[in-house]
Amino acid sequence: MPLVTSSNSTRIWNKGIAMTIFRASFQHNDTYAFRGHPVLTENQQVHQELVPDISSTSHEGIHRCDSCGELVSKWDEPLLGVIIKKRKFDISITYDGVLIASEMFKSVYAANNLSGLEFRRLPDDIPFLAIHAKRAVEFEAERRKTRFIKPCQYCGRFESVVGATPVFLKAGSEVGDHEFVRTDLEFGSGDEKHPLMICGNAAAKAICDAKLKGLDLIPIEEDGS
């Protein structure tokens, strides 16, 4: 799959199609927002990018289901004590699914009149901000054959939601040219579950032109990507 544009930072992948919306894929910043950092063997460290270890103790005060332990207020937690370990990225993700942006990302976002994101400064790591898309678009789970594994009868959440790509959005879903949105479903297992981030063509171009570090942008076709 050839690159449309490349640098040592943002990459946009071309599949020979008219690119209108993109799915973002993020680098991990070697940070946990809701748990302590576990002591890992060398072999475990190799697999952290694919299957993050979530065996360490949860931080005090984090709201979890009393039955299954799932996060119940994930996007409203104050993120106290979070210090970003890998600090070279302009946008990155914690092992438990929180998107983190630099001041550079926020400046590019404002300068290009991009829209759709909420920014919350990390209270104990001022140079960085947590970001979350305000608007959700519906993911077509039945068509994608997404699997919902081990539901909790108490809170209604699932231990795992598997089957995010290729991306199928429901008919009529719209993403503005300068907009960032998220899927209504969150994918992954345990604490790491998070929605897909999707953006319009102008937003993707602005990020790539600014050579922001930490993400790849993959075009979404009508039949998935």
What are the SSEs and their pairings?
Elements: E1 3-5, E2 11-13, E3 21-26, H1 42-46, E4 91-93, E5 99-102, H2 103-111, E6 117-121, E7 128-133, E8 136-137, H3 141-144, E9 147-151, E10 158-162, E11 180-189, E12 194-200, H4 201-209, E13 215-219
Parallel strand pairs: 2-13, 8-11
Antiparallel strand pairs: 1-2, 3-12, 3-13, 4-5, 5-7, 6-7, 9-10, 10-11, 11-12
In total, the number of strands is: 13
In DSSP terms (H or I, runs of 4 or more residues), the helix count works out at 4
**Rg (C-alpha, Å):** 17 Å
Main β-sheet description: 9 strands, mixed
Give helix and strand order, one letter per element, not per position: EEEHEEHEEEHEEEEHE
Return the average pLDDT rounded to an integer.
88
What is the straight-line distance between the termini? 12 Å
Oligomerization state of this entry? Answer: single chain
Shape from CA axes? globular
Low-confidence stretches: 1-8, 13-18
What structural class do the secondary elements suggest?
Answer: alpha+beta
Give the total of domains.
1
Strand share of the residues?
Answer: 25-35%
Q: Helicity level, as a percent range?
A: 10-25%
In short:
This protein is α+β, with helices and mostly antiparallel strands. It contains 4 helices and 13 strands. Helix content is 12%, strand content 28%.
Description:
- Strand 4 (91-93) and strand 5 (99-102) form a beta hairpin.
- The strands form two sheets. Strands 1, 2, 3, 8, 9, 10, 11, 12 and 13 form a nine-stranded mixed beta sheet that branches. A four-stranded antiparallel beta sheet has the order 4-5-7-6.
- The chain has four helices and 13 strands.
- 12% of the residues lie in helices and 28% in strands.
- It is globular, with a radius of gyration of 17 Å.
- It has helices at 42-46, 103-111, 141-144, 201-209, and strands spanning 3-5, 11-13, 21-26, 91-93, 99-102, 117-121, 128-133, 136-137, 147-151, 158-162, 180-189, 194-200, 215-219.
- It has one domain.
- It has 225 residues and is of the alpha+beta class.
- The termini are close together.
